[in-house]
Amino acid sequence: MTASAKPARFYFSLRSPYSWLAHRDLTQREPKLAAALEWRPFFEPDRISSRLLAELGGTFPYTPMSRAKHLYILQDIGRISAQRGLRVTWPVDRDPVWEVPHLAYLVARRKGRGGEFVAEAYRARWEEGHDICDRAVVGEIATRIGLEARELAAACDDPVMRREGAGCLMEVCEDGVFGVPFFVQGRRRFWGLDRLPDFVAHMSGSGVPLRSVPGLPASAVGLGSRAVDDGHAGGCG
């Protein structure tokens, strides 16, 4: 499939606060577009996923965050969240395995509940401060959206889901994604929270037909409305 023939994509990470804010802006202000995009996970691979990705010929594009950048993000997210009337509850990640929530998302997506899983996972992490790499937390999220807790909590133990996850990371490599949130349509790429309005405007004038995806209801809100431009790069690895 050529780049222009692929559906428009939204690369997100449940780890990233900028992805969380982009998800909120996109689903609340541009729900028709949100329902039309292909949602693809971006997550730091563990040893198993790294090996599977290497077998596919890919290398994950991740650079460790400096202390200065980390401190800046703490301040920046607090500022941007306050502008939206949101209160962040910062989670503590202790030896996180990001396959736990992201492969659970892939299971939820197979069952038509991907969008619901992402919304609940973001709420659990950024509004309630839970560790979403804790299998018990993932199980609770699954129960909230009407799915079987054990299946989603154990997704990262399933070799089939492991291979599917590695395939998602290979898509990250093929699309040239280096951080999140990241939006792709054809050969056009938009990185960061503050590029969301530009992506919306691009899609509005692109003539690309929108298709609904399961797990995220579309509304009558059109593409013409514009999200707030916060003047910030709004992307992280």
Automatic annotation (TrEMBL):
Its EC number is 5.99.1.4. Keywords: Isomerase. One of its GO terms (molecular function) is isomerase activity. SUPFAM superfamilies: Thioredoxin-like. It catalyses: 2-hydroxychromene-2-carboxylate = (3E)-4-(2-hydroxyphenyl)-2-oxobut-3-enoate. InterPro entries: DSBA-like_thioredoxin_dom, GST_Kappa/NadH, HCCAis_GSTk, Thioredoxin-like_sf. It comes from the Bacteria. Residues 10-202 form the DSBA-like thioredoxin domain. Pfam families: DSBA (PF01323). The keyword Isomerase applies. PANTHER family: GLUTATHIONE S-TRANSFERASE KAPPA, GLUTATHIONE S-TRANSFERASE KAPPA 1. Belongs to the GST superfamily. NadH family. This is 2-hydroxychromene-2-carboxylate isomerase. It comes from Streptomyces sodiiphilus. The lineage of its organism: Bacteria, Bacillati, Actinomycetota, Actinomycetes, Kitasatosporales.
